[in-house]
Amino acid sequence: MPISLHPASEFTTDQLTALLNASYDDYATPIRFRPHQFDFFIHAHDILLSQSLVAQAGDVPIGVVLLARREERGWVAGLGVAPEHRGRGVARALMSNVMEHARTLGLQRLQLEVLSDNAHARKLYEDLGWQLGRELLVWERDEEQGPLPIHRERAVKIEPSPLLEGYFDAWHETRPCWQREKATLLRYAEAGMQGWAIVRNETPVAYVLGFPPRQGRMHLLDVAVDPEVGYKSAGRAMIQNLHGMFKTTTQLPNEPVDSQLNFLFAAMAYHVVLRQNEMTFEL
Fold first, then answer.
1. Residues 6 or more apart in contact with residue 4 via CB below 8 angstroms
2. Fewest CB within 10 A of the end CB: N or C in the chain?
3. Do 97 and 159 belong to one domain?
4. Is residue 129, in this structure, part of any structural domain at all?
5. Residue 56 lies in a domain
6. How far apart are CA 96 and CA 73, in angstroms?
7. What range defines the domain where residue 10 resides?
8. Confidence at residue 32, expressed as pLDDT on a 0 to 100 scale
């Protein structure tokens, strides 16, 4: 049956959600969006459905690629094909065509993330001219590891948007991945993301952003420390307070391997549970 490609904007949210979930169902990191969560994902990451693509076999959607844009940069937010339709060149066709869309938009660079052990996907991207970039680490601390020592300082709850506007740029010495850029986090702030900070002399010196635990897990969206104060002082206090407030399994995704935060999380008995690589393509 011939394969055809169509703008993702021609499909409903329900169709796109079902297709993306099916395409990632057997991955190490499966996607299980509900329609409203998919809609927010599109909004938070500046994904252009008009430039994203769906592959169809006849009238059945079988694959999808999502393209996001911020100024002259683009991000491939997801590329997936339903398991029963893999091995037919669908992923290659989707990626090749979305790269052409990026050229038409005048983008200068594309980026994506690929699991470090996903050799098949990595080879596809390299065949299309993508370059392997830095490693990203997914850190996790399991609830079963028990509590961290109680710190003498107490974190305070604080609105995330002022933290981001006031401290994000100065406190991130390593460029964050797309999902943790300030533009993304400000959208999460609109949706109820919460913030906690260590405050000294009425000034924040470290913060954590995220949503309260759901189903026994807490996913952190950003952690930052004033580099002039230091990770041993403010960083330890922040993480110890976090685990005093929320005694649950906690995960921080996609921390660049050259980030100083990795030393903090290792010291706090977090473990690397997944590794990804950024890849880039110059247009």
1. 55, 56
2. N
3. no
4. no
5. yes
6. 17
7. 3-107
8. 93
| Residue spans of the chain under pLDDT 70 | none
Q: What percent of the chain has pLDDT over 70?
A: 100
Arithmetic mean of pLDDT over the chain: 97
Q: Are residues 90 and 142 in the same domain?
A: no
Q: How far is Cα 5 from Cα 92, in angstroms, rounded to an integer?
A: 12
Q: What is the DSSP string of 227-258?
A: TTT-IIIIIHHHHHHHHHH--SEEEEEEEETT
Count of domains observed in the chain? 2
Tokens of 189: 């702030």
Both 95 and 167 in a single domain?
no
Residues 146 and 272 in one domain: yes
Q: Are residues 70 and 155 in the same domain?
A: no
Contact 148, 246 (CB under 8 A): no
User: Within 10 Å of residue 261's Cβ, how many Cβ atoms?
Assistant: 21
Alpha carbon distance 262, 271 (integer Å): 10
Is 57 domain-assigned? yes
Instruction: Please name which of 140, 218, 222, 156 lies closest in space to residue 187, comparing C-alpha atoms.
Output: 222
User: Which are the contacts of 75, defined by CB distance < 8 A and separation ≥ 6?
Assistant: 45, 67, 68, 69, 110, 111, 112, 178
Structure tokens at 29: 């990191």
Residue 127 lies in a domain: no
Residue 201's contacts (CB-CB under 8 Å, 6 or more residues apart) are none
Ordered DSSP codes for 127-166 = HTT-EEEEEEEEEEE-GGG-PPPPPSS--EEE-HHHHHHH
Q: What is the CATH number of the domain that holds 29?
A: 3.40.630.30
Nearest alpha-carbon partner for 245 in 253, 254, 237, 234: 237
